[in-house]
Amino acid sequence: MLSPTRKLLKSPHSSSQSQQSQEVSTVNSDILPISSLSRFSPRNWKIKAKCTFKSNPKEFQNKRTGNSGTVASVDLIDNSGEIRITMYTEQVETFFPIFEVGKVYTVSHGNIRPANKHFCKSEYEAILTSDSKVVKCSDEDVIQTQSRTFLENLDRLNSDRLVSAMIDIIGVVHTIDDLTHLPTRNDSSKTIAKKTITLIDDSNTSIAVNIWGPKATTRSFHVGDVVECVNAVLTEKGADRNISISESSEIIVAISAETGIDQNSPSQATQREIELFEWYKNKPAHLEIKRIEGKAQALGPRKETVAKTVKEITTTEYEFSDQGDFVTVSAVPTLTRRSNVWYMACPNEKCKRKLPDPTSDDPSEQNLRCHNCSWVQTENSQPHYRYLLSVLLSDHTGSIWATAFDNIAPRLIGMDAASLAKIHEKNDDKENVDSILLHSVLFAPRTFTLRIKKHTVDTPTQGSIDRLNVSIVQATEQVDTAAYSNFVLGKINEIQQKLEES
Amino acid sequence: MENEQVTEESTPRINGNLMPHYITKVVRVVGQVEKIFNQGNEPRYTLTTSDGVSVTVIQDEGSATPQTPYVEVVGTVINNVTIQEILLVDFGKDFDMKAYDQCVKLINGPFQSLFV
After folding, report:
1. Contacts of residue A486 in chain B, CB cutoff 8 Å?
2. Are A485 and B106 inside 8 Å of each other by CB?
3. Are A209 and A245 found together in one domain?
4. A282 and A317 share a domain?
5. Where do transmembrane segments lie in this chain (chain B) (predicted)?
6. Which residue has better confidence, A123 or A153?
7. Is residue A121 part of a domain?
8. Rounded to whole angstroms, how far apart are CA atoms A481 and A330?
């Protein structure tokens, strides 16, 4: 009679066990190059690759299917290509902690599907399942990784084509700035950490790298480190062009200046990285370095006044300089601010400042005083009324608020501010500020010459934002319809040409 | 009867070169007055359309002769160069014919569906 254990030994499992041990010894021949993986690959594929990027696990909720959970990804690279490994909920728990950026892993089993090119550089994406295996390889297990995705040298960052593109670069840390905290755009009560370092390479070019978020605080660098920036974005704002490392990018120290290239345990660094490390150590003391810069704005206000539509003004905000540019718009005032249409100003010709309201309620102290010069309101010297009219100008493309100051408002309204203030004081039903504005300003199309300045404003709720300061410099009595027709015909032509080209 | 004709059918804006397409249809033509004359008992006038074509307009009875250099005629196209006037509107002395002609080309060309 066979004992139960002996029965087990005779079961089919024993034969597969010996097969498994055979599998282990030939494991290297089972490894496939990443570039061979596709939807038609057999389920039991296996790759060996270096982790270049680890995302932060994110919560998701699929409204269509009702699924919810966490999702996380890592990017793996080998000699043939890159692939993104994505994990959901349970697999996030099992596999995600195993991955470390810079280390080599064997990964097997999973569903391969085409990747979403908006978020992912690689062609395909592998979704890990409960059958998947992730094994960390020993540090001595070195593999060659594809390095052609890296930009040859930093000088290439001068190319305008790369602006806003997602790129990979290699450089040597040259300077390190202190950590700063900036208020976030959406919620200025929260701050985001920012650390700026500059990288240089043997093309004698330097580029600033801005690291945002938690990485700014956790990563540390030394001058002379050779680093890789993966999935970084080349951003340009005015004359400032730099590399941004954010949530979806990664910055890795390939060769540390402190430890150097250890001859005993060869590092995972590429040939290029070793080259740069040596170059930096031996570079001359005074090196002429060119900084990567964006295209600077034209200095000074533009001399010619360009005719635009409202939408063109509001959507090309970045074009306007701090000094102010002139633009003409044929538009209709559709709204005006009904209160504070005028203000009291100091009559002193040299001053003209706005007079602040009397600070006390004491009737004897009701005389206005100028805070800029020494003028005081007396029986003989009265303050001037000056216009400050906010108007909403609309055309078929949109609306924009503009201010008409005392130089132009009297022409629009048909009387000076003092007269309008007098009418207001009379408190007549029929003739009042509203009716006058309605008859003179509102709904009368004119061609307005606007002076537009861009300025950055710190708001309590939205952080630092750009605003346009629009003031009316000139206004015609009527719109020149022939000129306006030609302007619009020109725009139609432009659009037609663009459609033909695309 | 005239008003019905004008309001029930659409009256496309055309220039001289489009006339052949609209024979027997009611159209709108803007032109510059060249000559006012009589053909037998019929008062007529010639217009130069926005694309430089010379067109003869047979004036409607009871309608006034054109008073300003630029006019708009709403009428039936008799043949390639003649219109029977239904309605006349004086357009003044300032009119950009080149811009108007570009407009007519857009109306009858790529954006026709917007104007039917």
Report:
1. 96, 99
2. no
3. yes
4. no
5. none
6. A153
7. yes
8. 9
Chain A's closest residue to B96, CA to CA, is A482
- The predicted structure's pLDDT at residue A197: 92
Of B95, B99, B106, nearest to A486 by CB-CB distance is B99
- Residues A317 and A464 grouped into a single domain: yes
Fold observed for domain B2-104? OB fold (Dihydrolipoamide Acetyltransferase, E2P) (2.40.50)
Could you tell me the pTM of the whole model?
Answer: 0.48
Instruction: List pLDDT tens digits, range A137-168.
Output: 887 767 766 654 677 788 888 777 677 777 88
Per-residue model confidence as pLDDT tens digits over A388-399: 999 999 999 999
Q: Report CB contact under 8 Å: B96, A496.
A: no
Whether residues A128 and A182 fall in one domain: no
**Total number of domains in chain A:** 3
User: Closest approach of chain A CAs to the CA of B34, in angstroms?
Assistant: 22
Query: Which among A482, A486, A492 has the least Cβ separation from residue B106?
Result: A492
Rounded distance between C-alpha atoms, residue A376 and residue A32, angstroms: 89
- Shortest distance between the Cα of B74 and any Cα of chain A, in A, equals 22
E strands along A321-445, which residues? 325-336, 342-345, 384-395, 398-405
Q: Which residues of B touch A482 (CB under 8 A)?
A: 94-96, 99
Cα gap A328→B74, rounded to integer Å: 36
A485: nearest CB among B94, B96, B110: B96
Torsion (CA) A4, A5, A11, A15 in degrees, nearest 10: -170
Is B36's Cβ below 8 Å from some Cβ in A?
Answer: no
Task: Identify the contact set of chain A against chain B, taking CB-CB distances under 8 A.
Answer: 482, 485-486, 489, 492, 496
Q: In this predicted structure, which of A113-122, A324-333, A446-455, A480-489 has the lowest mean pLDDT?
A: A113-122
Domain boundaries defined on chain B: 2-104
Question: Both A286 and A310 in a single domain?
Answer: no
- Buried b / exposed e along B13-38 (16+ C-beta atoms within 10 A): bbbbbbbeebeeebbbbbbbbeeeee
Residue B99 near chain A (CB below 8 Å): yes
Mean pLDDT for A92-104 is: 88
Q: Please say which residue of A249, A265, A291 terminates a domain.
A: A291
CATH number at residue A492: 2.40.50.140
The shortest C-alpha distance from A491 to chain B (Å) reads 13
Report residue A301 CA to chain centroid gap. 27
Contact B35, B43 (CB under 8 A): no
Q: In this structure, is residue A355 part of a structural domain? A: no
Using CA coordinates, name the residue in chain A closest to B94: A482
What range defines the domain where residue A51 resides? Answer: 4-136
Average pLDDT score over residue span A400-406: 92
Predicted pLDDT of residue A388: 92
Q: Is A443 found in the same domain as A337?
A: yes
In a domain, A268, yes or no: yes
Which residues of chain A make contact with B103, given a CB cutoff of 8 A? 485, 489
CB-CB contact of A137 with A104 (8 Å): yes
Tell me if B103 and A496 make a contact (CB, 8 A cut-off): no
A291, A325, A359: which is the final residue of a domain? A291
In a domain, A141, yes or no: no
Average pLDDT of every residue of chain A: 80
| Distance in Å, alpha carbon of B115 to nearest chain A alpha carbon | 16
- Whether the Cβ atoms of residue A309 and residue A329 lie closer than 8 Å to each other: yes
Give pLDDT, residue A152: 74
Residue B92 at interface with chain A, using a CB cutoff of 8 Å: no
Residue-wise pLDDT for A203-230, tens only, equals 888 899 999 988 888 888 999 899 988 8
